[in-house]
Amino acid sequence: TVQLEMKALWEEFNQLGTEMISWLRVGATDEVPWAAVRAPSPPHSVPRYAFHSSAWLVAGKADPTTPGRVHFHPDSPAKGAQWMRQIVSFDKLKLTNNLLDDNGHIILSSMHRYQPRLHVVFVDPRKDSERYAQENFKSFIFTETQFTAVTAYQNHRITQLKIASNPFAKGFRESDPDSWPISPRPLLSVPTWSRSSLRPCVLKGSTE
Amino acid sequence: TVQLEMKALWEEFNQLGTEMISWLRVGATDEVPWAAVRAPSPPHSVPRYAFHSSAWLVAGKADPTTPGRVHFHPDSPAKGAQWMRQIVSFDKLKLTNNLLDDNGHIILSSMHRYQPRLHVVFVDPRKDSERYAQENFKSFIFTETQFTAVTAYQNHRITQLKIASNPFAKGFRESDPDSWPISPRPLLSVPTWSRSSLRPCVLKGSTE
DNA sequence: TTCTTGTCACCTAGGTGTTAATAT
DNA sequence: ATATTAACACCTAGGTGACAAGAA
């Protein structure tokens, strides 16, 4: 079945002799084939870090870890051809340091170091799929994506690189609008962080 | 396989001791199950309209029609459960009166009347699926969504209703910001046109 | 002292009708 | 005359770091 959203407003326009495009809720049932998931580091205990004299050092050990949440890409489940059609952006993934977070954000501890991981999971149609759970996914790790979670930048050079490379921080650039101090120009002609809701090194608390 | 987007920038950040979230292109192959499609009126010849003394009248007949394009919802193909998860918005659908349009927009003729149609198409896995093409879709029509394509509003009351009901036109409202002249308040607490790229009665030419 | 939170001005990105200029 | 285009101010929506105030 299909329902028309904002039916009353549609009719109000229609009475005057016009119209536009609608929101619909369409229905059917079926199985799921593929899912893309992104997770933070495994829920092991991890050391605490501190920034001193321009360097990050281990400042403690084995702090209790935060809840091990994962982020499901909003397009999942979808089949392989769908994922291939365009770049898969995780710009809806958000971080928080609020242990009681209620928005499904990934919970991290400030001043701790993390390694993002990507899992591509095969949604097994078999009834006893749990038995094969070990072979039904493939993981990817890019070590250059490691990061330390903070509530405010510790390293001023990170701040400067962020300002230089993120279009949303253009208001803090000092030089000519057509030249950047650090990153070469071509990097910014591609959408970089413009679609990211994350502040790379900065945790945001819940708004509640 | 998986590739990391913006690898150079990642490494530049990483050298300073930090990181963030990435864009990825993930690969796999599979079949397609369901698709949602939206189309304008059928490519028959249609009459021309004119607005005179507050009414639309037929002002000609059987103009040659425009190319009969259809708009595939960007989430398609997807299975039923996926479509059910949230309202299916066609806010990426755009109209144009440019017969040479190269952006895949729906081509319409100004001063002509149209009936939007929604088709839910079953992607048949059988090899001889063309034989069953007649039974592999279901169409939906909401007559209250009919509209006349124009390049500028003809009916001033349409303009006023648009201003009153579309949050993006809030700058043209005259009364208190907390009261609207025509539509009752509750209508606007829901996202209405805020996600639509269409000017309900106005065609946009290509930017080329 | 060190870390965290909330507010702010400044951006990107793009959806509105208005208006003046142009085309038909 | 009428229809179309392009530039504009004004919005929504939300991603930035700066900064001041607060918390641990």
From TrEMBL, chains A, B:
Keywords: DNA-binding, Nucleus, Transcription, Transcription regulation. GO terms for cellular component: chromatin; nucleus. The keyword Transmembrane does not apply. One of its GO terms (biological process) is cell fate specification. GO terms for molecular function: DNA-binding transcription factor activity, RNA polymerase II-specific; RNA polymerase II cis-regulatory region sequence-specific DNA binding. Residues 48-174 form the T-box domain. It comes from the Eukaryota. The keyword Zinc-finger does not apply. It is found in: Nucleus. This is T-box domain-containing protein. The lineage of its organism: Eukaryota, Metazoa, Chordata, Craniata, Vertebrata.
